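Notebook, bench 3.
Goal today: get a predicted structure for Hydroxymethylpyrimidine/phosphomethylpyrimidine kinase from Pullulanibacillus camelliae so we can plan the truncation constructs. The sequence was checked against the plasmid map this morning, with no discrepancies at the termini. Length recorded as 267 residues. Pasting the sequence as submitted so the record is complete.
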Amino acid sequence: MKTALTIAGSDSSGGAGIQADLKTFSALGVYGMSVLTAVTAQNTQEVSDVEELSPKIIAGQIDAIFQDIDVDSIKIGMLSNEQAIRVIAERLNVYRPYPVVLDPVMVSKSGYDLLRPAAKNALLTELLPMATLITPNLKETEALLGYPVTTLREMEEAAKALVHLGPRAALVKGGHLEGEAVDVLFDGTDLHHFSGERVQTKNTHGTGCTLSSAIAAFMAKGRPLAEAVTEAKCYIQRAIAEGLSIGHGHGPTHHFHEWYTKEGIKK
Ligand SMILES: Nc1ncnc2c1ncn2[C@@H]1O[C@H](COP(=O)(O)OP(=O)(O)O)[C@@H](O)[C@H]1O
Ligand SMILES: Cc1ncc(COP(=O)(O)OP(=O)(O)O)c(N)n1
């Protein structure tokens, strides 16, 4: 069985973070493992508290996995602070895993900083260059590049500009625009568009986590990048369309094993 590792924070409500990643890996038939960076007290309405884990235990979790198990892909999500970024970069430089899908999580839907603003530079210099793919939303793209991105044309230019910062490829997600939900991939050579019908729903908690871990799962199974994004986009479309009205805020995406067959996502 193929394996995938998520390095991310815990979401107590189970909709985002490590929990969303592991549910996605499992639904897509990949054996999931986790390295926890922080614990959030979170529900569908807000993040009320965060406790960060020490660099020592983050390094310990990474070493424990890599010294024993073959890792077929990695997804990186919430990092919280600079020390976590530095220790993760340092350990991954030792094990040199491939592929690495980096979702540069910065702020929760409710406005809580999931990455301390002072840690942005470390993210840019330490982790972006070792990523196979980064998957920022529009706000994260703006934070990484330092200028606003609000149209499809600007998303295309932004994806190219992000690749100049070091990752091999960049997927700029258009989930927060109006109209069709279009994401733009620059793979270092070509631009690709991935379009999905916009679902009118408030149950979009964990969409970014689900998409990036689905890409990591498909890459663990050996799919080339653009094909992995195509299949992951199909998965997130269904996960949002069948999102769950759990809690009083933004409910989570739905993960259902039976959607996924050898032939792909069941319609
Ligand atoms: N209402 C929606 N209908 C269909 N697709 C959506 C919707 N909202 C987000 N998406 C898709 O979900 C994925 C995650 O995007 P986004 O919500 O922008 O990320 P994030 O959770 O990081 O803010 C993207 O593929 C985006 O196009
Ligand atoms: C622990 C944790 N990690 C990441 C996120 C952000 O998840 P995302 O998929 O971007 O979803 P929303 O925050 O937009 O709902 C998180 N909330 N918690």
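The pocket of LCLJCK34 (ligand 2) is lined by residues 8-11, 16-17, 40, 42, 77-78, 105, 108-109, 114, 205-209, 250 (CB under 6 Å). The chain has a mean pLDDT of 96.
Flagging this for group meeting.
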